[in-house]
Fold these 4 entries.
Entry 1:
Amino acid sequence: MGERFKDRVVAITGAGGGLGRSIAALLAGEGARLALFDRDARRLAETAAVCPTSIQVVGDARSAADIERFAAEARAAFGPVEMLLPAAGVLGKAGAAIDNTEADFDRLFAINVKGPWLACKAFVPQMREVGRGAIVLFSSTAGLAGSPTLSLYSASKGAITLLTEAMALNHAADNIRVNCIAPGTIEGPMTDESFRLAGDAQAQAARRSLMLSGIPLRRFGEPGEIAAAVAYLLSDDAAFTTGIALPVDGGRLI
Ligand SMILES: NC(=O)c1ccc[n+]([C@@H]2O[C@H](COP(=O)([O-])OP(=O)(O)OC[C@H]3O[C@@H](n4cnc5c(N)ncnc54)[C@H](O)[C@@H]3O)[C@@H](O)[C@H]2O)c1
């Protein structure tokens, strides 16, 4: 196992999730000290159990107060945070954009767009103290090409793709790199939910085979494959890379 992240301090929101946990475990294995945040205390504790040097903070990623508390507790435990992964996100409702309600829209954009922005706002000052930083935001292939089935989700992830570019320009002079990962369909709770949104068992099976037929590598991704790409973007190996959206999607967007 490498030591790319030895003693580096990394903050992760959505750390109880399929991707958040896989990434946390990889970084922990390479020596990182981890501040982990999620609204689900049980899943958060399961992630912390595979990360020997970590703290857990339970809260809502939409809440400025909760995110500021997370940033303060991370700093108190480990010193200033140098790397940030705001992974907390939700799919929202399936269907056409106009078939969602105002409440659906507000909830989805609060978690998927406002949440990552709040996290950046809370942690960039700590990165400035360190004199360097790396942020990997969580877009999606649906944030690079419009999705007819997850329309508002797609719009929220499109916002993340351009937030990445804007923030890369904002913070280049601070020596802070900002990139985003654009996963395709990855095995785990979120993908299971996307199939459930398709309807009954028959509709779910049809959706699964339709999705597979659009992926040149003819399979869904594994969380570890996203973790490896995120770790690359965070690491010094990517020291000259900022402002990109990296698709990890089995060729789906070709
Ligand atoms: N899994 C995929 O196929 C896929 C594909 C493209 C993009 N993504 C993106 O990657 C990120 C991680 O996805 P995942 O697969 O780990 O999802 P997941 O559903 O497994 O986990 C998401 C985590 O975020 C937490 N969370 C949700 N809302 C929260 C809130 N308001 N406050 C605090 N925590 C909250 C949940 O409790 C959960 O632990 C998301 O932003 C998602 O949109 C995932």
Entry 2:
Amino acid sequence: MADRQVHIMVVGAHAGDAELMAGGLLAKYHQMGHKTSIVHMTLGEKGNRNLTPDEYAVQKRKEAQAAAEILGADTYFLPYKDAELPNDDEAAYKLCDIIRLAKPNLLITHWEGSIHKDHTNTCLIVRNAQFYAALPTIKRELPAHGCWSLTYAENWEDPKGFVPDTYVDITSAYDTFIEAAMQYEMVSGKISSFRYREYYEALATTRGCLSNFGKAECYMMPEGALVRKADRFPSF
Ligand SMILES: [Zn+2]
């Protein structure tokens, strides 16, 4: 058990996003004795040419549960439909309630500069949900809970303006990360023409090369989060 247990919650637009963006970090923190959880805003059930959305939703839910079990993460599903996730207060309050229930310390989600509207909306919803969850004057069933911070993970569909500032060594958790991601048929290459497995394996290696770790994941802090305060110029 870690000396000071933290709880990392990753919020993904479609089942599979959270694991691909932050699966290494989730596996690593679970191995270290911390608490982890995943929120799926939608199941991402419209991307299979051979199955109806209802049929694929059943499969994606099972895949998400299998991946979460391998990562050691709790899982929450919101009831929104793939490609129809609205950026509205109802969605933000649903997520606010999950944050108040699960009490994470760190929230991780998509960067807003995405080619997919569900990803952008998830980013905007998470920001509002974090704010609502922390405000005691917003009365919900559960009391307010403030998270320490929010950060953005790297996703192939969210490249516009994503500039990583934090490299996390995931070498020790890499095999678990890949095993979890492979629970999704789309990652193994049987559904999408996008080469998910190759991309995220290569990304972990490339980020590892740049940070001198074996394998790494990249994150980007919100604007202003890395500001340093000092009474004189740092390093002098
Ligand atoms: Zn997605």
Entry 3:
Amino acid sequence: MDTVKSKNSKVYYRHQYWNNIPIVLEYICENYTGNKQKWWIADFKERYCEQPFEHALVMMCGNGWVERELYDKGIARQFSAFDYLEDLLEKARAKKAGRRIHYFQADANLLELEENKYDLIVNVAAMHHVQYINRMCRMLCWALKPEGVFVNTDYIGPHRNQYSQRHWHYVKKINAQLPQQYRKQSLNKPRLGTMLHMDPSEAIHSELTIETITRYFDIVERHDTNGGVAYPLLTRNRNISKELTPDMEKWVQYILQEDRKYTEAKKVPPLFSYFIAHPRKTVLQNDALLNACQLEENAREAKAAKRDGIYSLSAYYQYRVKKWYRQTFKS
Ligand SMILES: C[S@@+](CC[C@H](N)C(=O)[O-])C[C@H]1O[C@@H](n2cnc3c(N)ncnc32)[C@H](O)[C@@H]1O
């Protein structure tokens, strides 16, 4: 029995995302690494890989670009990578050529890994699909060697993109300031029903990512990349293409400028984060804490299962999201 409800790989890699636009990528690089021209992989390689790691695990690898790029940059000598969807794994296998990458099929929510097996674990845009996020983080802590490194870049915003009213008010405000021809048309707050229909695992517990990872890992550095305004306005905006005209570029720059301003003023939260962490192995000896966290997770999921996978109707979950906004603005 698996937990995966959407087995359609077409939901991935099909839209224009904000980071497909070159100047947006520069903005993300600047926030992640302090250098517009430096992608996090180059930064990670420079500062953490004097010697290649021996064995790396890439979570939920999709079409495999992450481990191919990391391998080609010499970040680890060998990789293991898993995904649930066989057709994506086939694509990844077809492109691996002579690289030392071992692919396996697994459901992240049921994954079993060997203790202290990996020197490096990498999450790129995947943890936000994990339903049993506590179990997963605990498993990653267990599978990483004590001196191992966990590197993450992912969406950490409100679950299933259920932004607060206040947050959405600012997104709409900036959209209205754009010339008509660049505005995102039909700018609607993502509807829970649509999210559940498209892919119920999308951002299923994203707002718990930082909280859950810090339960099992010490985050040694964290670099957020804003996005509270720019991500919803530039993702799937049919009026803005990645081949920018000079006028379009001026307005994309405007969106990025406002994105920075609104994030710094704590009017909108950062939605993406690049961070590096080490496992806190001692927590694995704390049976009381491990049991309590797993029981809480199991109860949350059992309750949601009775409501077709909906969490946000419960007062508890609305409370969690509100708490997340409060804590994010405080830090
Ligand atoms: C947004 S894609 C990211 C893929 C890849 N990391 C990348 O950056 O291109 C999310 C991936 O998670 C996989 N996935 C979703 N739920 C999963 C699960 N329960 N177990 C394993 N893989 C899963 C999907 O098949 C998909 O490849």
Entry 4:
Amino acid sequence: MIPIKMMSNNDLDFDSVIRFIEERDRFTLLSHISPDGDTLGAALALFRLLKKRGKTAEVVCANPVPKIYGFLPCSESVVMPESAVGYENVISVDCADMPRFGRAIRIFEAAKHTAVIDHHMTNPRFGEINLVVADAAATAEVIHELYKRMGVEVDEPAAICLYTGIVTDTGNLCYSNTTGNALRIIADFVDKKLVDVAELNRLIYRNVPYGKTRVQGFVNSNIQLEAGGMIGVATLTQAQMKSFDATNEDCEGIIDGIRDIDCVKIAIFIREGADGSYKVSLRSKGVGDVGRLAALHGGGGHEKAAGYTAHEPLSTVKADIVLQAHEELERVLGGENKAE
Ligand SMILES: [Mn+2]
């Protein structure tokens, strides 16, 4: 494989993590809440690496493994914080900050030694040892590099985990964060027949629960356009979700569908939570900074993707954010017009 320039910026951090692993024996790996393909794939691949080195390890997550990721090798061994041993050496995997641990935070806080392995640029490096590779497409890409540097062979189960982490964090190798290195890793897996790309694609992307298809169809058919089509907004109540037997997991991706409408610049999706609050998801495309909008409500995110939780009635939540999205478009486009 072609030498990787980007990872070499982190040479010293890789050395520290390798020493952290080699010098110790019992590890707890922490995945983040609302686990995705990367936090699970990367943690399970690291779990295998540790096992191969004769170490004791467990993977802990505050939420159950989503059904869709049940195909990941060893996913059945992922435990809830309550069932965790909580070994003295804790490694955070793909967690951008400590709140991402959810209630598993107490395991991190009780640890004797901690290491952080991640790829989020904003990671505050909250471990004793920190390996944050900001230009890696996925934490799975960082774990793959760890396999290489430690001279551990990637077997078929590990390849399935690493592949899943990389494709799910890059929108199936379509987003701008897709690196040449990520593509070379996958090319290598394909050459070595370690992954069946068609079968994994079916498991990850063509394996949709009935309730998800129905709830997404319902929301999509009720999208409203504002500001001459530049704002797309949709809402979903608990009662509507229940009528489709849809879970929170089934609502993932709805916001991206709103954003993808050709004329839409700012997409808004408001979903009622089980506690009666409203989760507001925001996306922008080319114009406007939704991170600013979320910050007005105490939320977080960045220019293109952000969100917050609101506690007012739905009509108020919707009217507020639509107005603010209008103002954001005016701020950006108004400025542009003046400059011309
Ligand atoms: Mn990730």
